[in-house]
Amino acid sequence: xxxxxxxxxxxxGRGLTPESTLAGFRNAIALGVTTLxxxxxxxxxxxxxLSHEPRLNPDLVRGPDGKWLEGVGPTIHSLxxxxxxxxxxxxxxxxxxxxxxxxxxxxxxxxxxxxxxxxYAMGGPDVRFNIETKIDPTKPDETVDPARFARLVVDAxxxxxxxxRTTIQSFDWRTLIETHRIAPEIETVCLTxxxxxxxxxxxxxxxxxxxxxxxxxxxxxxxxxxxxCSAWSPFWRNVTPLNVxxxxxxxxxxxxxxxxxxxxxxxxIDLKVDGLITDYPDRGLVVLAQxxxxxx
Length: 296
Fold this sequence. Notes:
CATH superfamily: Phosphatidylinositol (PI) phosphodiesterase
Low-confidence stretches: none
Distance between the termini: 14 Å
Strand content: 15-25%
């Protein structure tokens, strides 16, 4: 049994507080979470901000007039930081299907899109950060190119002196390979999913895997190692005893996402994973205590 466990608050813990907001990250820290997970977008003036979507999402974005967006908004990359800061992301739109998924989420009206620098500034001396380059190889016009994205992230991490407390994760491994090339001191995490709705592994080669190809021989875990990642972060339903063992044999940590019910958390922990990402860090802390584990 591991002595410590990496419990990560997904988007700050969106089951509890508005996602990707400083209010949410503060709440996660107050609970006792020690790793904050978040996604990154890039503004028109090349500022890294926290957002899961590359476009303004009507499920959670209100305009300067206080009204919900009527449809999908512009890309964040088409807006300056000043323009982006006029939008409110402090609650879910109750009229949307997404807005009904987290009935226990406590609103925090007035929250704005935070910058990565703002997140670092409020994190305190002990918090770690798992930040995701949100980039889609099939939609190249939505944000900057992979090399530019990686450089912006590396520069921001170095400016904040957070190299030892930050990991960079992505489904699009091009940013991870570029990060490993220009900043080998910053650990990277290879994200994957295999499901009926999305599959970043399939294809010969898959556009998500930066030219690496499972069908050319070897395992997915070997590709993760070849990409320079120190951890593999699969969709939690894709985790099996065999692939956890395969990852550990390659000295890879396994941190599945996004595990939300106590029963599923307990089952995943029993597979000997090294951490998990969850929308409900409060539940995760209870399960860890029951398993005799502590968040590290």
